């Protein structure tokens, strides 16, 4: 399974990542990607970017050396309703919005029911395109309900390579469960690096293996083609227009 886009990456601005914007883009070109989403952490992340950063990111080019750039954020879920740490005025301007749980950003780890409710709330947020690393065992959820909700809302769930490689031990069985359910229901997935340095851009081998072993078809993995990503974002914009 070949991917044309990496939709979850971080630069120095996130506070605990190690490469510049230019280094990330250069590496994307080197590994043969056609699209890169820069999704630095939301404003509650300790040491991360402040709100003004996300207004200035819009000044970055949308294409560099043949690489299409999505200016985005990985927003932090901060309560059981799925509220995010990013104001709506900023969310509506960004190309790509991810939402997920992170320690020390305002969300107190809850029960399976509370965590699931928070994820479901984030899925219903009209600005959210993708739920990040939903298989993190530190934030247990009802994976079946989340997959069903994502499918109903036309939102994507993430198979996160970093979770499988080193950053979230114990994610493997949950990722396999989610991938099997997604394969069965036709739920949209993305497979991303969650790179925190340029050396990890496009590194998705473990996540691809889980997807293939679980019966996931390339057609339901959003970032197998730039066209699929663009079509998804366009349909998302059309939904926003209908509700605004």
Instruction: State the fourth-level CATH superfamily.
Output: Metal-dependent hydrolases
Give the SSE order as H and E letters. Answer: EHEHEEHEHEHEHHEHH
Which class in CATH terms?
Answer: Alpha Beta
Could you report the average pLDDT, rounded to the nearest whole number? Answer: 96
Protein name: PHP domain protein
Organism: Desulforamulus ruminis (strain ATCC 23193 / DSM 2154 / NCIMB 8452 / DL)
GO molecular function: phosphoric ester hydrolase activity; zinc ion binding
Domain Polymerase/histidinol phosphatase N-terminal: 5-79
Structure description:
The protein has 244 residues and is an alpha/beta fold. It has a single domain (5-243), classed as Metal-dependent hydrolases (TIM Barrel, Alpha-Beta Barrel), CATH 3.20.20. Helices cover 38% and strands 16% of the residues. It is built from nine helices and eight strands. Strands 1, 2, 3, 4, 5, 6, 7 and 8 form an eight-stranded mixed beta sheet that branches. Strand 5, helix 4 and strand 6 form a beta-alpha-beta unit. The chain is globular and about 40 Å long. It starts with a strand and ends with a helix.
Core attributes:
single chain, 244 residues, alpha/beta, TIM Barrel, eight-stranded mixed β-sheet, 8 strands, 38% helix, globular, zinc ion binding, PHP_dom, Pol/His_phosphatase_N
């Amino acid at each position: 399974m070949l991917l044309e886009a990496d939709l979850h990456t971080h630069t120095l601005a996130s506070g605990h990542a190690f490469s510049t914007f230019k280094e990330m883009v250069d590496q994307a070109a080197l590994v043969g990607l056609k699209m890169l989403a820069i999704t630095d952490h939301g404003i509650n992340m300790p040491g991360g970017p402040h709100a003004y950063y996300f207004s200035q990111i819009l000044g970055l080019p949308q294409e560099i050396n043949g690489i299409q750039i999505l200016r985005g954020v990985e927003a932090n879920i901060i309560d059981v309703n799925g509220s995010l740490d990013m104001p709506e005025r900023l969310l509506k301007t960004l190309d790509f919005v991810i939402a997920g749980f992170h320690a020390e950003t305002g969300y107190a780890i809850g029960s399976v029911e509370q965590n699931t409710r928070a994820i479901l709330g984030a899925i219903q947020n009209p600005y959210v395109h993708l739920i990040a690393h939903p298989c993190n065992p530190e934030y247990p959820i009802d994976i079946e309900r989340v997959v069903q909700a994502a499918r109903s809302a036309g939102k994507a769930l993430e198979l996160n390579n970093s979770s499988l490689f080193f950053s979230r031990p114990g994610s493997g069985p949950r990722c396999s469960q989610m991938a099997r359910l997604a394969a069965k229901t036709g739920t949209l997935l993305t497979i991303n690096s969650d790179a925190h340095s340029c050396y990890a851009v496009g590194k998705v081998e473990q996540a691809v293996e889980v997807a293939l072993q679980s019966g996931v078809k390339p057609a339901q993995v959003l970032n197998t083609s730039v066209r699929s990503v663009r079509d998804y974002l366009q349909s998302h914009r059309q939904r926003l227009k209908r509700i605004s």
